[in-house]
Amino acid sequence: MLVNLRIKNYALIEQLELQPSPLLNIITGETGAGKSIMLGAIGLLLGNRADTKVLFNTAEKCVVEGIFDISSYHLEDLFTQEDIDYDTQCILRREITPTGKSRAFINDTPVTLDALRTIGANLMDIHSQHDTLMLGDTTFQLNIVDLYAGNQNLKNQYQETYRQYKKLESDYKKLESQLAQAQKELDYNTFLLNELEEAKLQEEEQEELESLLKQLEHAEEIKLKLSQALQYLSESEFNVAVSLKDAAYLLNQVSAYSDHFQALKDRIDSCLIEINDIAAEVETAERKTEADPEKAEQTSERLTLIYNLQRKHQSRDNAELLQIQADLQQKVSSVLNLDEAISRTKKDMEAAYDQVTTLAGQLSESRQAVFTHFQEEIHSLLAELGMPNARIVFQHVTGTPTATGIDVISILFSANKGSAPQTLSKAASGGEFSRLMLCVKYLLADKTSLPTIIFDEIDTGISGEIAVKVGKMMQQMAKKHQLIAISHLPQMAAQGNAHYFVYKEDRADRTISRIRQLETEERIKEIATMIAGANPSKHAFQSARELLAL
């Protein structure tokens, strides 16, 4: 439950703080005093959007903070799911900076608005007049039935299975689309793949072939130059090898006079070994070099094939061509594998659909099972609220599975005896709508563990003894939930365990909203004023005391 609320720099609120009772809290005040403004601030704690227009002082940030005691609500798993540290005291805080930046915190940890909404939705429910209008929405009505029937676990299981089915259905359609497209491209891709595979490309082949072709095209020149080089190295009368031998012989003769001469002679011996080795390789190369026009033509043709494939596929080298070949192999193989994938996905999709229909049937049976009892309880509560002839009827049909199941329901309403039930938008007045919604909330209060419920003028359109009964009903709800109710009715105000008064205070430069908890005498005066106006009579004061049972 909410144990402390602090609002700073929001709209007409400069600074506001209150510690509501754990039972029924009533908030009263003149129209425009700031009651709805306070609800707007509380809405920020539930993740509602805001901008700099809400700032009381545009130079300072807005801060709304709620401290909740959640020790008895078993929300540990929810906090773990949202990766937020759990504590029996939960602090929700929202800040709006003058630049328009919004920040949210849970237990002083920065969180996203989605996380704030998820946690906040389990701590507080704000029922506004807009929610009363939502009672006419069929999806909202279905949610009411599920809450009353205790279908949350079954509904969650169904929705998870339905999501899995829709994903499989989407995957199946994508695979079929891919197959249709792939089949159009299969013949062309197969032709390209066969062409590349027949070429038997090798990654470094191009460079080797280009080098070989140069040698074959200049074979006679190469052979001549190699032969001339061999003459200089080892075959002419004054070749390099003979000269080195002579030099080595001379240095050997003086090597006894100096180690340096011996070292020079050893170096010449090393050079001689290298020259002889070079000469041998040159001789081998010269012997192997022969003009071969046929091999040159074959090499040229092979290179032409490679160049043509590179131009065709807009690639720079064989490495890119081989990657294209691998990609084509994947595309051709994928077509062959798509049939298997489609068959497997279809089988999984059909199995998931069977699960969906089974769970949808169970959900539908659970919903239909509570229709009669729900109607009877609503009729009894409406009778207590001065509508003895009011009736609701569930109009129900089943269809194909959707995200909410196979059920389509509509709550039909009749306020008077002999009137045929009609949709709520046609049959219910504002006051009837409010009373019906209060009855629904009253029934659902026992089905939920929501700590705090806020009612914004749910007593609209009622008065007199009915207002007293509405107050009694809310007192009953407050035994299990903390209630905060904004009201204009003295009968409602008298039922509260705590009474807060919202008022405007005029300053020299602007008007601000304030709130204070009323003491007994202040409360009597406020209720008397609600009964008789600005100058209540003694009778009004007496009526206020009677309502308060003082």
Q: Can you walk through the features of this model?
A:
With 550 residues, this protein is an alpha/beta fold. The protein folds into three domains: 1-132 and 450-518, P-loop containing nucleotide triphosphate hydrolases (Rossmann fold); 177-338, no CATH class; 519-549, no CATH class. Helices cover 58% and strands 18% of the residues. Strands 2-1-4-5-6-7 form a six-stranded antiparallel sheet, with helices on one face. Strands 8-12-13-3-14-15 form a six-stranded mixed sheet.
The CATH level-2 architecture of the largest domain is identified as 3-Layer(aba) Sandwich
Distance from N terminus to C terminus (CA atoms, Å) equals: 29 Å
Strand residue percentage: 15-25%
- What's the number of structural domains? 3
**SS-based class:** alpha/beta
CATH topology-level fold name of the largest domain: Rossmann fold
Major beta-sheet overview: 6 strands, antiparallel
Q: What is the CATH level 1 assignment of the largest domain?
A: Alpha Beta
Q: Rough shape?
A: elongated
Mean pLDDT comes to 88
How is this fold's topology laid out?
Elements: E1 2-10, E2 13-18, E3 24-28, H1 35-45, E4 62-69, H2 76-81, E5 89-96, E6 102-106, E7 109-111, H3 113-121, E8 124-127, H4 129-134, H5 138-149, H6 152-199, H7 205-217, H8 219-235, H9 240-254, H10 259-288, H11 293-313, H12 318-384, E9 391-402, E10 405-414, E11 422-423, H13 424-427, H14 430-445, E12 452-456, H15 464-477, E13 482-486, H16 490-493, E14 498-506, E15 511-517, H17 520-532, H18 538-548
Parallel strand pairs: 3-13, 3-14, 8-12, 12-13
Antiparallel strand pairs: 1-2, 1-4, 4-5, 5-6, 6-7, 9-10, 10-11, 14-15
